[in-house]
Fold this sequence. Notes:
This protein is mainly α. 0% of the residues are buried. The protein has one helix spanning 6-59.
Amino acid sequence: MQDMNPLEIEHIHANISKLIAESMKLQAEALKMNRERVWYPAVLLIGALGAGAAIAKLFT
Length: 60
């Protein structure tokens, strides 16, 4: 294995930092999507109940 000069080592460290940052961003996006996925059925149910109540009020 060849010895690396300080510039090459710094470049590798920069790439590692970039990959860590990208990984953290993807993890945050996945967490956000999971939270939204949990609430989506509740929002649909509330909307359907509201629409049903509005229709029932029209017929009464």
